[in-house]
Amino acid sequence: MSVQEVKVAYTGADPTAFGVMGLSLICFVASSSKLSFTDPKATGLLVIWAALLGGIVQIIAAMIDFKKGNVFGGTVLGAYGFFWVGMAFSWATLNGMLGEGMKAVADPKQLGVVFVGYLIFSLFITIASFETNVPFIIILLLIDVLFFTLACVSFKWGPVALYAQIAGWTEFAISLVGFYAVGGIFFKNFYGRDILPMGAPMGLIKKAAPAPAARTKSV
């Protein structure tokens, strides 16, 4: 008897623009709070938009990317999607939305540990981003700076006020570069050609050759 491995290819559209849109919009909204464009203490609405834009949108896009075999897109959008879900629950806890008991036992410094952990993750992803395009490289480098400064603010390392401002402007810059990337990716998929230049992979680390196609096995 022979058993043949059958691989089902995903034939749907590229979800990357959709996922990056979620990241760009939540960074745009969150940075408005950090930079005092809106009330820094009023994080109630940030809970909603962090969960929806930063979380659900990116996670949906990540799931589709994994089906398409896009490991970079699925990993990045999925990881940062769950980060924003976690931030939504964190803000809800610190605001007392999940009960005064939860708020009373919350230690904001634990967010600093989260930021350090995501910084480590982002450094690895930044290396891989050099094989994608220029906007993604810039976004990942800015994300590294963002997590570093957020960690410093959480642990009160160094000039906290300065780091808080750097974090705000870095997050704002992420949103702007992200919006550009959304336009570039969307236009390319919609028109079938490059409208906004995205740049080519730098080829710093060569990828291994693709594995040979699966063969029929006999048992």
From TrEMBL:
Membrane topology, from the record: Multi-pass membrane protein
Organism superkingdom: Bacteria
Pfam entry (one): Gpr1_Fun34_YaaH
UniProt keyword list: Membrane, Transmembrane, Transmembrane helix
InterPro entries in the record: Gpr1/Fun34/SatP-like (IPR000791), SatP (IPR047623)
Places the protein is found: Membrane
Transmembrane segments: 12-31, 43-64, 71-91, 111-130, 137-157, 163-187
Family designation: Belongs to the acetate uptake transporter (AceTr) (TC 2.A.96) family.
Stated name of the protein: Acetate uptake transporter
Species of provenance: Desulfosporosinus nitroreducens
